[in-house]
Write a structure and sequence with these properties.
Blueprint lengths: L3 E9 L4 E6 L6 E4 L6 H4 L8 E10 L2 E9 L1
Antiparallel strand pairs: 1-2, 1-4, 2-3, 4-5
């Protein structure tokens, strides 16, 4: 699968996780800091409603997740 787009629904600086609402209307995806390239540089730029691109392919115990999350 290729890159998709969506918006940050919620982001928790601690424990460095959040949820993305995909533009295609599918269920929200969990993401974790280890799946955000250069997290330490971009963490202050992540906010509610921030447009991002991502790839699917991570599965957490709570459900599907996103990887390679980047700010648009």
């Amino acid at each position: 699968m290729g890159k998709e787009t969506g918006v940050i629904k919620v982001f928790f600086r601690v424990p460095k996780t959040g949820f993305i609402t995909p533009d295609d209307g599918s269920e929200d995806l969990l993401f974790s800091h280890e799946h955000v390239p250069n997290y330490d540089e971009v963490c202050t730029k992540l906010y509610l409603g921030q447009r991002v691109s991502f790839e699917r392919g991570v599965t957490y115990p709570s459900g599907p997740g996103a990887k390679n999350v980047t700010i648009l």
